[in-house]
Structures are given as C-alpha cells and as structure tokens.
Design brief:
Elements: E1 9-10, E2 16-19, E3 23-28, E4 31-36, E5 41-46, E6 49-54, H1 59-80, E7 83-90, E8 95-99, E9 102-106, E10 113-116, E11 121-125, E12 130-135, H2 138-150, E13 161-164
Antiparallel strand pairs: 1-6, 2-3, 3-4, 5-6, 7-12, 7-13, 8-9, 9-10, 11-12
C-alpha cells in the first residue's frame, strides 16, 4: 500500500470538493482548481476528508494512487492558503522591478529582460533584489520561479545570479596564482 496514497486529505472549512466521472474540482476562498484523473483510482468524500483508493493492484494503478492523492492535497492547500516561492538576486547592478503585468530584470546582459506574469499568478518585488512568486497552483508557481531562475542561474565562483531563498550555492575556488 502506498504510504502517501493511503493518507486521507483533510478538507478545511470553506473548501468544497466536487468529484465527477473523470475530473475533480476544488473550490475555496482563493479560487478554483480542477484536475482530470485516471479511472484506476477512486475518490470518496467522508466527514471533512477525502480518501483516495485504487481499483486494483496493477503497477499503473499503484503509481497513480500516491500521485492523485498528492495532487488533491496540493489543490486543497492552494485554494485555502496558496503557494509562494521567493527568489533572491545577487550581483552588482542586478535588479528586478515590477511594471504592470510584467517584471523587468536587469541581470548583466546588454538589454533588460521583460518577463510577462502568467495568468493566475502574482509576481511582486520586495526591494530590487527579492522577487516573490505566489498563486494557488503549486505547479504554476514552481514553473514560473524556475523560468525566472533560468534567466541567470547562480554561478559557483562569486554566487552571482538568481537563486531560490533556501538554495545554497556550492562555491568553487578561483584560479590559483603561480608563485
């Protein structure tokens, strides 16, 4: 039995879960999310929680069991609390500035980079070197943060670039001079 799949998903007050033939919809105070699912798993609503079970013990059904339980848990967390990722910019002259529906990055290239804010997300800047990506979909928040980080990944010698706030950069020693 899947260790993750057998755990019930707790549904907080104010969150509604609707189960249809091949789609599950979660609606809460922050918004609405829906996810299609394979018929190898079943969702059952009980008092304040949702339980995910599989129909048989095939390899495919076992792999979907934990996956859809975690996707449902992420949807419930997203519509009730939301997700955020924080990125830090390090380097002389490197900065970010929110301008309407886009964020402009100056990352040492000859031209500034304009990153459009995806639908359903909000990207704010807390000072010139801190970017906060937030939204209700964990997948979209992570994808946008990864795209922003890929504009200038941190380099190992001076640590310049865009990194996650909880990321540690393994530093390398520079050139050694000949005596």
């Amino acid at each position: 039995m899947s260790r993750i799949g057998k755990l019930p998903v707790k549904i907080p007050q104010g969150v509604k879960v609707a189960i249809e033939k091949d789609e599950i919809t979660v609606e809460g105070p922050k918004g609405k999310l829906s996810q299609k699912y394979e018929p190898l798993v079943e969702f059952t609503l009980e008092e304040g929680q949702c339980v995910v079970t599989r129909k048989n013990d095939s390899k495919k059904a076992r792999s979907f069991h934990g996956l859809y339980r975690k996707l449902l848990d992420n949807m419930v967390t997203g519509v009730s609390q939301g997700f955020t990722k924080t990125l830090l910019i390090n380097g002389v002259g490197y900065r970010a500035e929110a301008q309407g529906q886009s964020v402009v990055f100056s990352l040492g290239y000859s031209m500034p980079i304009e990153y459009p804010v995806p639908e359903g997300l909000s990207i704010t800047t807390d000072g010139p070197t801190k970017v906060i990506v937030s939204g209700i979909s964990r997948e979209l928040v992570g994808q946008a943060a990864a795209e922003i980080r890929s504009l200038r990944p941190p380099e190992p010698y001076k640590g310049k670039g865009v990194k996650y706030d909880n990321e540690t950069i393994i530093r390398k020693v520079g050139k050694a001079g000949i005596k």
